[in-house]
Amino acid sequence: MKKYALTLCSLLLFVGSTYANNDEKLAEFNNKLNVNTISFQENKGQVYDQNYHSRPDVLFSGQSQGLVYHLKNNGISYQLSRIDSYKEVEDERTKEKRKEIDQSTIYRIDVNWLNANIAAPIIKGEALQGYNNYYLASCPDGALNVKSYQNITYQNIYDGIDLKWYSKAGELKYDYLVAPGADYTNIKMEIKGAERIFINKKGELEIKTPLGTLIEKAPYVEQEGKKLRSAWKIQNNNTIGFEIENSNPNLSLLIDPAVRVWGTYYGGTGGDNGYSCAVDASGKVYLAGYTDSNTGTEIATIGSHQSNYEGTTDAFLVQFNSIGIRQWGTYYGGTSSDFGFTCSVDALSNVYLSGRTSSISGIATSGCYQSIFGGGLWDAFLVKFNASGIRQWGTYYGETGYDVGYSCAVDVLGEVYLVGETQSFAGIATTGSHQTILGGGYDAFLVKFDSTGTRLWATYYGGTSNEYGASCAVDASGKVYIAGYTQSLTSIATIGSHQSSNGGGEDAFLVQFDATGLRQWGTYYGGTGVDYGNSCAVDTFGKVFFVGYTNSNTEISSIGSHQPTLGGSYDAFLVQFDSIGVRQWGTYYGGTGVDYGKSCAVDTSGKVFLVGYTNSNTEISSTGSYQPALGGSYDAFLVQFDSIGVRHWGTYYGGTGVDYGIHCIVDAFSKVYVAGFTNSITEIASMGSHQSTLDGGYDAFLIQFECTVVFSIDVQTNCNSYTWLDGNTYSTSTNTPTFILTNSTGCDSIVTLNLTINNSTFGTDIITACDSITWMDGNTYITSTNSPTFTLTNSVGCDSIVTLDLTINNLIASYTSTNNGNGNHSFTNTSTGTFNQTHWAFGDGTTSNVANPTHMFSANGTYVVVLTVNDSTSGSCMDYYLDTIVVTGVVAPLQCAAGFVMYSDASGVTVVNSSTGTNLTYLWDFGDGDTSNTQFPSHTYAASGSYYLCLTIDDGAGCVDMYCDSIGENGVVFNKQTGFTINVIAPPLATQVNEQVALTSDVAIYPNPTTAEFIIELASYSPKTQLSIVSVEGKMVYTNNTINTNTIVINAADWSKGIYVVKITDKQSSQVVKLVKQ
Asked: Is residue 415 classed as helix, strand or coil in its secondary structure?
């Protein structure tokens, strides 16, 4: 069957490849969606429509949990997809059958920013490592080096308003940043393609499409760390904006409509119960429970430890990454009934699963602590997996009675504790433990194993009646806590504890042991009614939190607590103790119905989370919470308190059915995970989640909540000192102090102070100039000085007194020379002032940068030698000096010689024609297309630049010579910025010129002239290179047809004095150089 797509409003867009039509490409596509980090990939031509036409209007693209998005200069397009059917195909080679996509549907929604600045500058955030190259029909020459960025910001998308797109927790997010004085009501977004747009009872914006619903959470608006009441506003059915109460137009504003954090069902067609969750240091989250679903891969993944359902009920364990993508899942159990009640992780990301079992196989590993079933109705079990889902070891724990593991916890050493209840008389406690024998009908038990599964110690805990060990937790010092409930009147509390006797009926209890199993203290907790302790957790400060539910009217809450009285038939309770068992505070939590407290967890800042389920219509949720109203008969609930018992927020979580919140955990980034089970068909899973629909009677669920932490900078400038909102007074500039403000939702706003203190200061302005400087006081200084001062007054009236420390570098170029005979001259640089660049031009076409060079002139004559000195390569301070050097005693190889030097002055460039010979004719080539045959021409260049000036002379008697040099950057250090004129003059007797000459050649002969031995150096040679030397009379004096070196040494001592022609030839070219023998 042919694939089809619904086209809406405009063409569908694709990046790199079309939607896949086979499983391999689908897997590749899904893998891309499984990447935790959302990015923004720039478009260099790889984005195209279904007609393979390039879409340059798309600026950036990316993917987020089932959505493909394309950002343009005037809006964003969301593209949803759905696989409608598969077909079965057979591999021609292996004959294996597999499923491929047969039909899929694609749908697009456009969100246009009305009246926005379509030319808004876009600031790219940090680029991710690597790049992509695309070769597609839309870009046949390739879209190369395509980068992706962590975030992008449209600056001034509306007047005074920036729009930032970024990723948080693997989800696409955007913020509007409204500057002081800007009008947020200018923000208007037109939505095209939605079937319906409405605001639900949670204040969320729902955008319904044929393929699902896009949900934007209620906007979060903050000003100066304070949350403002805000809401979505719908106009004309498809245009949205914001309504914000009590905003101050003179202050900046942050509008942050957070994308919903994920939630998923987990289950098959049977009953599936989520009972526990845990999260490791890398952000992977685990869900544990039990199931009787036995089909497909709803529970276990292919290749997992146990991919098949084995008994009447099996435990299960599944791992998700931080954005809700399942990594692996496994059943755990034998042929009978197996229940998973708890999971926990260690610092190495190993995960433990515990519960109860009646199976005689499939539980324990060979050589474990207890490899066979104990023989009673149930045995507890404990199993360890690594992060990849590979079982490390597993053991039973129990004897002939009733033994159940309800909770496990791991300490910093990797040792694991298991808590539960038992009816067995043996096989539970170790010799010398706190309580070695069963105290009554049922006792709690606590056992400690090392990381290899070796039991270290174990104890019963209970009196003559019944005890239920529900939870355990370990603090950083190795102290372990047990929470549960009891009917016993003795053996529970220690003398002097918070509550040393049973209050009546069933009481909760909390007890602390050290790492060796010695009890430190224990206490009852309850009134005259029924009180159940279900969970405990410890914070980084040594405080322990205790959760349960109660119908007692007294002994639960402390004075001034959040809820001091019982609200209904049963209320949840939350209490905090310090590490020595002293209660800090306690509170009820519930409305007029039934409210069960099932679990608690603490984040790194000491905030505590309470999870349970309720049928109360009031007292559960806070204003503006995620779900402010009860959805069905029972809803899960999640509430956050700070460390002193003040509620920050509370929310329901559930649909129209029954939703049980059983367990919660917090990761290092304050993401809160809640596990439970439900039969609601809505309000549980987020779009694009692992399992977005209910599959059976009850399904497990796992959800993630997260605070949006807002970071801001408080920029302040003041004189001398400043007292900030943290109460401290700062007298120096700083950008490190931070202060945490907690808003009404319990989320943090972290403010950083960027303070500039402008004291009345004294400073020195150190300047070096060439001739003069006009300073900030308006005066011009021509000599070195360190006395002028000037007072600057900044915007807050603080004075800064500046003293000028000026050095004038009077740079004067000069030199002396010494005639060493035979054309050899030594030059001594006698320049004064500070300089670091020296340049010599000897007037014969050669140059030097040596400070004090020695130069060999090849012919007799008068040469203009120019010295230029600079104090930097840019020539900020420069001077030059020239003198004429008379060279005698050198046999001239030619009867004429072309030559000139140049220097720059205010009006242009002066060229000194130093050519020698008699009856000369001249041809000047100015390098811009013009020529002249006069001896001293003048020529104007129309524009600045580097020009190559050449002079050719002819004496009419067979001597023709040419000399060239460049005008501009490659020649003498001229710096003409506009058109200029050159003037050719005769050599002066003495003047100053700034001249720089560069000479390059493929052949060098030295010394030349020579009296005996000389050297020929070749830039390159080959087997075809030949050398010959002929006298002016035509006599061959030297040949070499086998050149095998760059350096050739020849002895000319026996040659006659005169001029010789050196000819070097190879396969493709030849070169002739004159040699003079003296």
From this structure: coil
Q: What is the pLDDT of residues 194-241, one digit of tens each?
A: 888 988 877 888 888 887 777 787 887 877 767 788 889 998 888 999
Q: What tokens does 318 get?
A: 């599944």
Range of weakest confidence among 155-159, 160-164, 463-467, 1062-1066: 1062-1066
Chain centroid, CA 433 distance in Å: 52
Name the nearest CA neighbour of 548 among 510, 501, 511, 591: 510
Instruction: Residue 704: name the closest of 733, 665, 736 by CA.
Output: 665
Nearest to 952 by CA among 930, 921, 907, 978: 921
Paired with 757 in beta bridges are 718
Average pLDDT over residues 270-274: 90
Q: What angle do CA 648, 652, 657 make, to 5 degrees?
A: 175
Q: Is 911 exposed, middle or buried (0-12, 13-18, 19+ CB in 10 A)?
A: buried
Give dist(CA 276, CA 288) in Å, integer.
5
Q: How far apart are CA 129 and CA 675, in angstroms?
A: 36
Res 738 pLDDT > 90: no
For 25, phi then psi, to 5°, come to: -70, -35
Q: How far apart are CA 29 and CA 26, in angstroms?
A: 5
Q: 27 φ, ψ to 5°?
A: -60, -40
Query: In this predicted structure, what is the pLDDT of residue 999?
Result: 28
Q: What is the pLDDT of residue 49?
A: 79
Angstrom distance (rounded) from CA 687 to CA 122: 30
Cis check: omega of the bond before 737, within 30 degrees of 0:
no
**Interatomic CA distance for residues 318 and 300, integer angstroms:** 8
Q: Which helix (H) or strand (E) holds 1004?
A: strand 1003-1006
**Residue 971: Cβ within 10 Å count:** 22
With cut-offs at 50, 70 and 90, classify the pLDDT of residue 521: very high
The helix (run of H) or strand (run of E) holding residue 30 is helix 23-33
Angle at 671 between CA 611 and CA 510, to 5 degrees: 40
| Torsional sign, CA 679, 685, 689, 692 | positive
599, 612 Cβ separation under 8 angstroms: yes
Q: Which backbone phi and psi does 33 adopt, to 5 degrees?
A: -70, -20
Give the span between the Cα atoms of 16 and 38, in whole angstroms. Answer: 17
* Sign, Cα dihedral of 195, 198, 202, 204: positive
Tell me how far apart the alpha carbons of residues 156 and 200 are, in angstroms, rounded to a whole number. Answer: 31
Alpha-carbon distance 861 to 843, whole Å? 10
Q: Output the DSSP codes for 685-751.
A: SPTTSS--S--SSBEEEEEEE----EEEEEEEEESS-EE-TTS-EE-S-BS--EEEEE-TTS-EEEE
Half-sphere exposure of 806 (CA within 13 A, CB side): 23
Q: In terms of Cα–Cα distance, which of 479, 376, 488 is closest to 443?
A: 488
Q: Rounded to 5 degrees, what angle do the CA atoms 480, 483, 485 make?
A: 150
Share above pLDDT 90 across residues of the chain, in percent, rounded to a whole number: 42
Distance, CA of 425 to CA of 366 (rounded, Å): 25
With residue 981 as reference, give the H or E element that holds it. Answer: strand 980-985
Q: Please tell me whether the overall predicted TM-score, pTM, comes out greater than 0.90 for this model.
A: no
| Tokens encoding 982 | 């050159």
CA dihedral 363, 368, 371, 374 (to 10 degrees): -100
Domains observed in the chain:
35-245 (no CATH), 711-758 (no CATH), 766-809 (no CATH), 812-985 (2.60.40.10), 1003-1077 (2.60.40.3080)
